[in-house]
Write a structure and sequence with these properties.
By secondary structure, this protein is mostly helical. It is built from 8 helices and no strands. The radius of gyration is 18 Å and the shape is globular.
């Protein structure tokens, strides 16, 4: 009887899907304390980029290795973005009572905040740098690569968009994100990020 090769495209594809599901579950579990979301994102992007480069053999093991290595600075970055995002959310909530010019200013700041969030944790996973330089580089890269930044920002915003669209869409999208949504988001963004990082 002829042996079935485990190296054929079907088994490779199934293995990839399995890794994505495992990474998604691990990511969600490590995000539960909230304060660990930053290092979880750093680890997820690091593993996804390594996978695209063909350097990731044991993604879950590598994920936890990155957790141990990057937890301190990633957490500082996350807390900075969390606090600044909270301030912006507060301002946006009360923006309807403010002058039009101030509304536009807050909107621009919120957009730039989204840009910085999109790049900060992938950069942290790829390069050793100070907190300040990582945030500065995230802002500069996001503006210099708007043709990549906008699609990534839209991909990241899918859960928020679904919430706005109502309960039916939320019920449809939640199972996807519980199973594979976050790892798939990081994988899609990593294609674009790799093209940017190659130029650095």
């Amino acid at each position: 009887m002829k042996k079935i090769s485990v190296d054929n495209p079907f088994f490779n594809w199934m293995g990839t899907i399995g890794d994505f599901i495992l990474l998604n579950i691990v990511f969600l579990l490590t995000c539960i304390p909230v304060v660990t979301i930053g290092v979880s994102l750093t680890s997820l992007y690091r593993v996804m980029i390594k996978r695209l480069l063909g350097e990731s053999a044991y993604p879950v093991k590598e994920y936890f290795r990155m957790i141990r290595k990057e937890w301190k600075q990633s957490t500082v970055l996350w807390l900075i973005l969390l606090v600044s995002g909270g301030v912006l959310a507060f301002d946006i909530f009360f923006a309807r009572n403010m002058p039009r010019g101030l509304n536009i200013c807050i909107g621009v700041l919120a957009l730039l905040w989204g840009f910085v969030c999109t790049y900060t944790f992938p950069l942290q996973g790829q390069y050793q740098n100070t907190v300040g330089n990582t945030l500065k580089n995230a802002l500069l890269l996001s503006i210099a690569n708007l043709h990549f930044t906008i699609p990534m920002l839209l991909v990241n915003a899918i859960p928020a968009i679904c919430i706005v669209l109502g309960d039916f869409v939320i019920a449809m999208i939640v199972p996807v994100y519980v199973v594979v949504g976050f790892s798939l988001t990081a994988w899609v963004n990593s294609f674009l990020l790799m093209r940017i990082f190659k130029k650095i």
